[in-house]
Each structure stands twice: as C-alpha cells, then as structure tokens.
Amino acid sequence: MKKLELCKRIRLALGSALLWKDTRGQDLVEYALLAGFIAVAAGALLPTISQSISTIFSRMSSVLAAAAS
Questions:
Q1: What gap in Å lies between CA 19 and CA 69, rounded to an integer?
Q2: What is the pLDDT of residues 6-26, one digit of tens each?
Q3: Distances, alpha carbon 58 to alpha carbons 19, 28, 30, 64, in Å
C-alpha cells in the first residue's frame, strides 16, 4: 500500500511540474502586449491618431465583454 501511495504522490508532483512548463499560450500574450505597447507609443507620438486608437480599444473591449457573457 505504501508503494502505491508513493507512486501517486510522485505522479501528482510530476503532473504539477509539467503544468508550469506549459507555454502554449505564451506567444499570443506576447503579441498582444507588443501590439498594446506599439499603440500606446503611437498615441503618445502622434496625438491625432490617439482618438482612433481609443475607439479601436473601446470596440475590442465591448466585443470581448459580449463574448464573455
């Protein structure tokens, strides 16, 4: 019985270790952050387009909120 319990604990530990190494969604997050930084930089450097950037982010926010509900 003790051997079986030890095997279960080892399997659980390995499973949680593999969870931390899962980086499948990392690229998408990095691209989204990069796009956000570029938009903020463009808005700061070119004030005339800051209103259109704000409109785009507002639309994206409303679409995401509608998709979440």
A1: 28
A2: 767 777 666 655 555 656 666
A3: 34, 20, 21, 10
Cα–Cα dist 62/65, whole Å: 5
- In terms of pLDDT, which residue wins out, 57 or 48? 57
Phi, psi of 21 (to 5 degrees): -90, 0
Tokens for 21? 């190494």
Q: Which two tokens stand for residue 48?
A: 């005339």
Domains identified in the chain, total number? 1
Residue 39 near residue 57 (C-beta atoms within 8 A): yes
For residues 52 and 43, give the distance between their C-alpha atoms in angstroms, rounded to a whole number.
Answer: 9
The parent domain of residue 56 ranges over: 25-69
Residue 16 maps to a domain: no
